[in-house]
Amino acid sequence: MAESFDLNQTDRLLTTTRAVRKRLDLNRPVPRELITDCIRIACQAPAGSNLQRWRWIVVDDPDLKMGLADLYRRAYEPYIAMQKDAVQRTGRSGANAIMDSSDYLATVLHQAPALVIPCSLGVPEGPQGSVAGFYGSVLPAVWSFMLAARSRGLGTAWTTLHLAFEAEARALLGIPDTVTQVALTPVAYYTGDTFKPGNRRPAEEITYFNGWKS
Ligand SMILES: Cc1cc2nc3c(=O)[nH]c(=O)nc-3n(C[C@H](O)[C@H](O)[C@H](O)COP(=O)(O)O)c2cc1C
What we know:
The protein is of the alpha+beta class. The chain has a domain at 21-80 and 117-190: NADH Oxidase, CATH 3.40.109.10. It is 45% helix and 12% strand. The chain is built from eight helices and five strands. It has helices at 7-15, 32-42, 62-90, 95-108, 128-136, 139-150, 166-173, 203-206; strands spanning 54-59, 114-121, 154-156, 179-181, 185-189. Strands 1, 2, 3, 4 and 5 form a five-stranded antiparallel β-sheet that branches. The protein is globular. 26% of the residues are buried. Flavin mononucleotide is lined by residues 18-19, 98, 102, 105, 157-161, 198.
C-alpha cells in the first residue's frame, strides 16, 4: 500500500505559509545549519534535466544586509508610491493591509537575521520555452525552501524589488554576471503561533477543463 500523508498537516503547511513581515522576530538569531537544512529540503524540487543550477546566497553579515536592504528601499519607495496611488483610485480591497505590512518590511529588512537570495546559473534568454525552463528550474525550489522554513518555525517573504538594482546587489555579493538572482527573502523565526489561509480566488472559478473558458 502506498504510504499516506497526514493531510491535515500537509494542507495546513501549504495553506498557511504566508508572506511574513510584521511577525518576523528580528531579535532571535537563526542558526546557519537550520537555513542549510531548509536548502537541503528545497533541493528536492524539480529542475529541468535535474541540472540543479540553483545556488543559494545566505547573507547574515550586518553590513551586507544593510547594503541589500538599502537597494530594496530604493526600489520600494517609487513602487509603493505608485501602488498607493492606484489603490486610492480603484479602492482594491485588502490592499491597505498588504501595503502597511510591506512598509514595515522595507523599514526593517536589514534587521532580519538572514536574507536569502536564490540564484540560478545562467541568464534567461531565447524563446518562451527557454525562459519558462529557466525560471521553472529554480522557483519551485524557492517555494519549497519557504515551506521547509515555515515547518521549522521560520517566516519568509518572497520579494523581488531589489532586482531593480540587480547589478548593485551582484557587485555587493560578488555574484558573477553569468548568474541570475531570482528573489530575496528575509528569514527569521516568526512570532505568534500559527497563520490562517490567505485570501484566494475559488479554484472552481479559475479551473477550466478541456480548454480555455472565456
Ligand atoms: C514574484 C513575487 C514577488 C513579490 N515581491 C514582493 C516584494 O518585493 N515585497 C513584498 O513585501 N512582498 C512581495 N511579494 C509577496 C506578495 O505580496 C505575497 O505573496 C502576496 O501578497 C500573498 O501574500 P500571502 O501569501 O501572505 O497571502 C512577492 C510575491 C511574489 C510571488
